Amino acid sequence: MNAYSLLTHMLQVSLFSYKKSCSISLLKQKMLQNLQALQNLKVGVKMMNENMQEKMTGKKFLNYVLNGAAIGIIVGILPNPILSAILGMMPQSHFVTVGTQVALTYQMATPIFIGALVGMQFKFSPLRVAVVAGASFLGSGVVRFNADLGAFVASGAGDILNTMLTAALACALLLFIGKKFGSTEIVFCSMTVGVGAGFIGTIALPYISQVTHVIGHGINTFTLLQPLLMSILLGMSSAFIILSPLSTVAIGLAIGLDGIAAGAFSMGVASVGLVLVVNSWKINKPGVTMACFLGAMKMFMPNLIKNPIILVPTFFTAAIAAIPVAMFSISGTPMSSGFGIIGMLGPLAAIESGLSLPLVAITWLVIPIVASLVGQVVFEKIFKLYDRVEVFGFTTEEPAEKLEFMVEKVPVRPLRKAKKALAS
């Protein structure tokens, strides 16, 4: 029921109640009281909404972007490696081939998922959510024009870091614009914010991508060290990267990690997943713990930003898990180096390099789990460096919803005119 229907209903009730027993003056008085009550309700709702709407701060803005991106990354990236591994074990057929292609194509939509979920964190309208998703897709670089082929080529999931920056830019522009476009928002919002933020993201993409190459070059220097130290440093590096907006897969492929270096890098990714499983087991929902085991480590990006202390048990486990890599010469490939146990790519690469199944189970599961449990006891129970619920608790903060009352749209001027007419 909108405001005018409500007003009409109250006036009808007034007429029904008083037409036989009340004078005209009493009827006018009752109608004036109803109008005043309606106007007071409008003012009250407006004040409630102003109190509920917290001021947007830099920290809140960053949390919204990280929370939305973390879920979007998992929704987009996780299915492909798991389904590809399962389909790869089946006899090859037309349906298996199409299924593999569909899973890969689905992964290419990751930037859209990130943008949409970031926009939903800000409680934007469906139109604005679509605009943020479109801008994120453009800025990701998942589809690029190939001059040699004369066509657009799609690959991977794009640059996650630049996708997040483009989504943040689009959200900032929408917050700045507010309701200035009015009824023309459906036309100008997509052109100015969607295409505009996407254009800026596309221009910035080559420069943001250099961040990955610079970090990859620094990591590549670890391969010049002796095997044990190299394995530990590479494992700790990948442990940090998998919790950040950067891509372990992109870095592993960019610098061509192979052999023991690839095995150590992959072991670091695997160890983070098991650290999160051990510490998430009793404090998060079962789905969160399962997602960590399957490879959804990036969903804890917000935790890294809010509580960098999470790196202490993570680095500890990665360093311990990397020691057997040097001892047993656990090897990998550039493709497996960034996946860890996602899709079992890391263990399968180790088996192909000659590692026995018992050693695979011990090195990829038993040792990281034991190290995670030891780290939990030492750092949380003994040294009391952190509270597990605060550091490893997975939450997606959502802003308080605004109270939407149709009465809020009642214009004040007609109410004043009605009151004046009744008073005369």
Short description:
This protein has 424 residues and is mainly α. Helix content is 71%, strand content 2%. A two-stranded antiparallel sheet has the order 1-2.
What does this structure look like?
This protein has 3 domains: 73 residues; 154 residues, no CATH class; 168 residues, no CATH class. It is globular and about 95 Å long. The longest helix has 36 residues. Strand 1 and strand 2 form a beta hairpin. It is an all-alpha fold and 424 residues long. The protein is built from 19 helices and 2 strands. A two-stranded antiparallel ribbon has the order 1-2.
Largest sheet, order of strands side by side?
1-2
User: Mind summarizing the main beta sheet?
Assistant: 2 strands, antiparallel
Q: Count the E strands.
A: 2
Uncertain segments? 399-410
Mean pLDDT: 84
Task: Report the structural category.
Answer: mainly alpha
Separation of the first and last Cα atoms: 30 Å
Shape: globular
Provide the gyration radius in Å: 29 Å
Task: Indicate how many domains the architecture comprises.
Answer: 3
Question: What's the helix-strand series?
Answer: HHHHHHHEEHHHHHHHHHHHH
What count of helical segments does DSSP give?
19
Instruction: State the helical fraction.
Output: over 70%
Q: What is the strand content?
A: under 5%
